Amino acid sequence: MQQYNIHAAKTHLSSLVEKAAAGEAFIIAKSGKPMVKVIPCLQVNTTVKRIGFLKGQIEVPSDFDMMRQKEIVKMFKG
């Protein structure tokens, strides 16, 4: 694994970030002593998959779309 001193890391930050993003981890050292390891971040999915999250936990009546509001409220409030 490559090691760069702080001055070199600051000087070549853009290219080092590109390398890390491509999967090449490296170490930044101060006076030859390793201080931090730079690794690529995992792609984080910012969208939350909500479809089906209550599958098997609730039951929707087949005539749900035909019910009146009072009946629907009664179902949820008991």
Summarize model confidence as the mean pLDDT: 85
User: How would you characterize the largest beta sheet?
Assistant: 3 strands, mixed
Fraction of helical residues: 25-40%
CATH class of the domain at 2-38: Alpha Beta
| Low-confidence spans | none
Number of helices: 3
The CATH architecture of the domain at 2-38 can be named as 3-Layer(aba) Sandwich
Say which CATH homologous superfamily of the domain at 2-38 is assigned. Answer: YefM-like domain
- N-C termini distance: 62 Å
Radius of gyration: 27 Å
CATH fold title of the domain at 2-38: YefM-like fold
Tell me about this structure:
Helices cover 31% and strands 19% of the residues. It has 78 residues and is α+β, with helices and mostly antiparallel strands. It has a domain at 2-38: YefM-like fold (3-Layer(aba) Sandwich). β2 (26-30) and β3 form a beta hairpin.
